[in-house]
């Protein structure tokens, strides 16, 4: 995907003057049993559960009282740029990862600081995305991946480093923004960097020692299964070495059957004609054995990716109602603009069920109803020395933000963007380690928006059993960059818009029920947790990265508001009487 081009968009790092409070006296150990069956009052992983639902079974906040939702505390992180990590809550303790390699631990009831971890960058380090998408919990440790390719285990009580492990080589252009995933005493993580010619992979590390356990390569080497889909001879015979397929978002896990499902990113360079073939496992979902990283099966959404339509988000694990029976399945609104339903077996075999466009796609002329393989409109396929114009653009029908599945309504809630297209012409760019080598100059990539377009961003609610849209809400003057949280009381919460609003909707009708304007735009996933019987809704506000880049383009070319305030703040809400004063946990700051 296009990365932020200016340090000004990334923002600056502010170091808090506030000293860390006393370490935690007690901590609730995180076990495999707790991760497989998370308590409603906690939020133990990025998407709330292994299935990737982004759903809370808590029932205190509902349609009848949501208008009384008030901020009960907030905490300024002291960091600018895009905050994309959800708060993670375990037994009253909240952990928030921020851009620029920081983690903050705080009291989830009061917002008081417990400790802060900050990792300095090695000399000469740079990356286009300085964000972080969250931490993982296991045992008595908190795990965070540093941008500089280090996986770090922190003592959950004190924030002190227990161990560090090298995941990738940042001098080659790799960097990490993903939240790790913890399964059976292993911590799994993959890097970003496809546009720098990084060959994608997923690694697993021992949670106690940091020892590397296994590696799954998303682009197979010659002789490995899938290698036949890469060039074997001629100019491009070594394309697999720099083939992309980075696995830069957390996967989902079928805990009952022990199967990992992970998304694989875009091809590198972007031009498919520079790596002829289907290019497995680029733009695919793969099913893996978490014990050793071996592949069980895969499904490729589109072959020979030429559009930067990364498939980094793993499908959400669900069950479909079929003739009175529950059938294991997966559903995913992909970046290429198609909504996929896939079958899955206990052994991890993936099958294609159906697919349909949920936004405008001008590349797929058809999709095989048996295999899911698309046929392409060649005018929409950019090539080396040949321009191509296609919809949706590189940001896709849905970018990285999480969709949400509500098992009570039977609906998938999708944050989407429509009516945006792109054109570019490719060229040969020899790879230089650590430098952009996507086969196209950034300045030659053009985002195309019709001046009369009525909306771009919005939310779609989709019945997973019928695969039909039930309702949608659209935004006339904003893209949608927010993940969605659904609740057992038929509400959904989301941010994602440039007006800085945090909103609650009726999950069945799409009616907006409540809103609150935060200090900045929200691109972090909302969560919910409970302490002493009180339910809280939490989200981190902090605009930046791609949302800021695209907002600048829309301002310059379409007259939209340009300067969306930056600055990270954790906002925590609960149903309160209007007379209850807001508590704000402030931190002092100074320029680093």
UniProtKB/TrEMBL annotation:
One Pfam family per UniProt: PQQ
Known cofactor(s): Ca(2+); pyrroloquinoline quinone
List of residues binding Ca(2+): 195, 266, 308
Source superkingdom: Bacteria
Cofactor binding summary note: Binds 1 Ca(2+) ion per subunit. Binds 1 PQQ group per subunit.
InterPro entries (alphabetical): PQQ_b-propeller_rpt, PQQ_MeOH/EtOH_DH, PQQ_rpt_dom, Quinoprotein_ADH-like_sf
UniProt: pyrroloquinoline quinone binding residues: 84, 133, 177, 246
Signal peptide stretch: 1-21
GO MF annotations in UniProt: calcium ion binding; oxidoreductase activity, acting on CH-OH group of donors
Residues annotated as domain Pyrrolo-quinoline quinone repeat: 43-362, 476-537
Any GO CC annotation of this UniProt entry: membrane
Protein family membership: Belongs to the bacterial PQQ dehydrogenase family.
Active site: 308
Name the record gives this protein: Alcohol dehydrogenase
Keywords: Calcium, Metal-binding, Oxidoreductase, PQQ, Signal
């Amino acid at each position: 995907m296009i990365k932020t081009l200016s340090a000004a968009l990334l923002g600056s790092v502010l170091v808090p003057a506030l000293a860390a409070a006393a370490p935690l006296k007690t901590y609730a150990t995180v076990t495999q049993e707790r991760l497989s069956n998370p308590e409603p009052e906690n939020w133990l992983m990025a998407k709330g559960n292994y299935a990737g639902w982004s759903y809370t079974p808590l029932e205190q906040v509902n349609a009848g009282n949501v208008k009384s939702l008030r901020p009960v505390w907030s905490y300024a992180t002291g960091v600018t740029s895009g905050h994309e990590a959800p708060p993670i809550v375990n037994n009253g303790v909240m952990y928030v990862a921020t851009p620029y390699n920081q983690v903050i631990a705080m009291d989830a009831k009061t917002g008081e600081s417990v400790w802060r971890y900050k990792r300095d960058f090695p000399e000469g380090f740079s990356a286009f995305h300085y964000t972080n998408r969250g931490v993982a919990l296991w045992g008595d440790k908190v795990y965070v991946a540093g941008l500089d390719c280090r996986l770090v285990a922190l003592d959950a009580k004190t924030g002190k480093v227990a161990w560090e492990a090298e995941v990738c080589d940042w001098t080659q252009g790799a960097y990490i923004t993903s939240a790790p995933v913890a399964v059976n005493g292993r911590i799994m993580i993959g890097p970003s960097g496809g546009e720098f010619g990084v060959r994608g992979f997923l690694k697993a590390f021992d949670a106690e020692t940091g020892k590397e356990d296994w590696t799954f390569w998303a682009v197979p080497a010659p002789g490995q299964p899938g290698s036949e889909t890469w060039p074997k001879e001629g100019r491009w015979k070594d394309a697999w070495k720099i083939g992309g397929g980075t696995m830069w978002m957390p996967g989902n896990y079928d805990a009952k059957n022990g199967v990992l499902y992970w998304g694989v990113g875009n091809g590198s360079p972007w031009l498919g004609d520079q790596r002829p073939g289907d290019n497995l496992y680029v733009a695919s979902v793969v099913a893996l054995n978490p014990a050793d990283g071996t592949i069980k099966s895969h499904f490729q959404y589109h072959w020979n990716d030429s559009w930067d339509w990364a498939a980094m988000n793993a499908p959400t694990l669900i069950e479909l109602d079929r003739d009175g029976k529950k059938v294991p399945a997966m559903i995913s609104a992909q970046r290429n603009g198609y909504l996929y339903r896939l079958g899955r077996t206990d052994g991890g075999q993936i099958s294609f069920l159906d697919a349909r466009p949920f936004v405008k796609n001008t590349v797929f002329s058809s999709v095989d109803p048996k295999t899911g393989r698309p046929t392409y409109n060649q005018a929409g396929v950019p090539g080396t020395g040949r321009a191509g114009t296609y919809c949706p653009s590189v940001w896709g029908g849905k970018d990285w933000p999480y969709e949400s599945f509500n098992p009570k309504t039977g609906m998938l809630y999708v944050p989407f963007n429509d009516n945006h297209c792109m054109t570019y012409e490719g060229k040969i760019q020899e790879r230089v380690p650590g430098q952009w080598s996507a086969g196209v100059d950034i300045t030659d990539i053009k985002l195309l928006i019709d001046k009369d377009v009525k909306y771009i961003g919005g939310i779609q609610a989709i019945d997973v059993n019928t695969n039909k849209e039930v309702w949608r809400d659209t935004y006339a003057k904003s893209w949608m960059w927010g993940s969605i949280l659904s609740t057992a009381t038929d509400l959904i919460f989301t941010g994602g818009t440039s007006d800085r609003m945090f909103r609650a909707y009726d999950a069945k009708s799409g009616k907006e029920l409540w809103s609150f304007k935060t200090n900045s735009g929200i691109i972090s996933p909302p969560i919910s947790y409970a302490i002493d019987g009180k339910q809280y809704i939490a989200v981190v506000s902090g605009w930046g990265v791609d949302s800021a880049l695209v907002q600048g383009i829309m301002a310059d070319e379409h007259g939209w508001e340009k300067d969306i305030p930056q600055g990270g703040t954790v906002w925590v809400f609960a149903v309160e009487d209007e007379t209850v004063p807001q508590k704000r946990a402030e931190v002092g700051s100074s320029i680093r």
